[in-house]
Amino acid sequence: MAAFEPWTRERGAEIIAGESGREGATLPILHALQDAFGYVHAEAIPMIAEVLNLTRAEVHGVVTFYHDFRREPPGRHVLRLCRAEACQSLGADTLAAHVRQRLGVDWHDTTADGAVTLEPVFCLGLCAVGPSAMLDGAPLGRLDNARIDAALERAR
Amino acid sequence: MTVHVYIPRDAAALALGADAVASLLRQAGDVEVVRTGSRGLFWLEPMVEVATDEGRIAYGPVTVADISGLLNAGMLEGRPHPLRLGRPEELPYLAKQTRLTFARCGIVDPLSLDDYRALGGLKGIACARKIGPVATIEMVTQSGLRGRGGAGFPTGIKWKTAADAKGERKFIVCNADEGDSGTFADRMLMEGDPFVLIEGMAIAGFAVGATKGYVYTRSEYPHAIATFNAALDVARREGVLGANFDIEQRVGAGAYVCGEETSLLDSLEGKRGQVRAKPPLPAHKGLFGMPTVINNVVSLASVPIILDRGAEFYREIGMGRSRGTMPIQLAGNIKYGGLFECGFGVTLGELVNDIGGGTLSGRPVRAVQVGGPLGAYFPPALFDTPFDYEAFAARDGLIGHGGIVVFDDTVDLAKQARFAMEFCAEESCGKCTPCRIGSVRGMEVIDRIVGGERVETNLDLLRDLCHTMKFGSLCALGGFIPYPVMSALEHFPEDFRPAHRDAAE
Hints:
The structure holds 2 protein chains of 2 kinds.
Chain A: H1 9-19, H2 26-37, H3 44-52, H4 56-65, E1 77-82, H5 85-88, H6 92-103, E2 116-121, E3 133-135, E4 138-140, H7 145-155
Parallel strand pairs in A: 1-2
Antiparallel strand pairs in A: 1-3, 3-4
Helix pairs in contact in A: 1-2, 1-3, 3-4
Chain B: E1 3-8, H1 11-15, H2 18-26, E2 31-36, E3 48-52, E4 55-59, H3 67-72, E5 84-86, H4 92-95, H5 113-118, H6 123-131, H7 133-143, H8 155-164, E6 171-176, H9 185-192, H10 194-208, E7 212-217, H11 222-237, E8 246-251, H12 261-268, E9 292-296, H13 297-309, H14 311-315, E10 318-319, E11 322-323, E12 325-332, E13 338-343, H15 348-355, E14 365-370, E15 377-378, H16 389-394, E16 403-408, H17 413-427, H18 433-450, H19 455-472, H20 476-480, H21 482-491, H22 498-504
Parallel strand pairs in B: 1-2, 6-7, 6-9, 7-8, 12-16
Antiparallel strand pairs in B: 1-3, 3-4, 4-5, 10-11, 12-13, 14-15, 14-16
């Protein structure tokens, strides 16, 4: 997994400026910040508001509306496990229970050693090869307990 | 002599190890590996095709462990092996299809404009330029093409409304927020044949007088996003896009409701993805208040072949008011899962049993959910339903974006109904009360029913709540969530009776 750079206001301002010329720039800015730092730092919200001539409340409202935007740094690896119907039909619920127990975390949590963040996702478009997941952006299909354990082991 | 080997880089093929297979085959001598999209036969992925004198010969599913055996058996000359499938187009699953929108997917290098041209690409836009905007819209109308995102609205009428509307600027917006579980057609097309979407959008832009197109792609599709951005670069370099019409891709952020067209527009404008009241229609006042055509990926990607082959050619396929082909996606607990493009009218039973081969688990099929999280659960008793917008509506269901999710006899439909409400509660944009509050109350009522608490009273309450949500919600999220809930209740009532549940355990 690409290591994220630590948040600084200077880098944040640079990234915000880089995207702010687009029409409706809020989402592109938030994505760019999260791609760089792994999350959207609270300090970025007034900075975005200033540049886009919006209120802080408006920007805060956008950040919190979308499931993707994290407000805390993730672990070194991010596992997005599909919870939607097609994967349910092949035992995604049982798989999710296994993963949560193995990692000792619930949804949206990061393991105590900072290695893995577990996030739910509702469909990765891998519905004919479920149960599916994405580990650090790499798609995984036909998962069972052993296959997900092996993938997590390789990532550690 | 260099042997050409074709290996998909479709995300589903990658999920089954296609990258490792590709890197091993690159080291297998004088081999040129071409990465393609997927043909959509996912139980055979990774499917490797070798160019031979008798055409391409497929092998699959190929794992890393199979490679040395395959090479020793003479795979690079197309020789026999237990994994040899023969010519892919002769496989029954492909031979039975009518591939129009997906004609090139899985065959071409997705980023080669030469490949695209060689297989009929850019003929549609050439025809549009020759006949002019008015005739182009007329041809799309005459083809009978309806919105493939799920709503089924006639595409030509939408285009004409936007063309007739006045505005300083006009936009073409492509909805690639394919959030329905059980669907992956948009993803496959953007990864496997992105130029057909670009061409479709360019035709739409020419027809309605728009200068800018946006594609709103869900963030859960990083491979589609990357391929499509690369294709946009190629299209600009080769002059397919430019000063007259350009396209920008924007990425969603995990909100299912942004697949609803008006909340998608708000999201593109940089706001919370909340649903707008209609009217005004997006065709009159859409993105940034300007006339906007908003179509699904498959709708737009079906336009080039209509322009190329003519409205008559397209409308002769299909049934009733559903004309042309639909890329149907067979998903979930199914033996032969994948993409099956065919004319409307094929029955649900043919799709699930004959083409799909029944369940992957080998157990009996108990239910199928058609059309994503907002679609109804149908029992095998309704398998005679033809795949057609109206036929599904007549049975209180919908075809949606064409996804079919199969469940075996271990499924608990009360649990699925509760999940529908939970999903709606999680994904509601919050603007209207029936959806925002109703979904939470729906979960609670189903919990009470399942817990055996005043079951009949609570079932009545659930029906009443679904009625309110169906008719009182602002958009299809709250408005259609009653479909999975009520169909589960109607067709599988035994799952909601605690007595039966106890007896079954």
